[in-house]
Amino acid sequence: MLAYPDMNDLVDRCGSAFTAIIIAAKRARKLNDGEEGVLDEYRGSKDVSRALEEIVAGKLLPVGKE
To answer: Which of 1, 32, 33, 34 is least surrounded by Cβ atoms within 10 Å, i.e. has the fewest?
Structure first.
């Protein structure tokens, strides 16, 4: 179960859970490859958690949802 960020927040930002997970997975791969994070501070320590936090913060959005 996902404790933070809340799944409802992710769906609100992305339109669907599937879209949120795809965006988070792609971003997590980039973070794992050494790309810098876009937030000043993260609650999570893993790349997927950080990617999800970036989505909720509005730093990552699906194409066409701006």
So the answer is: 1
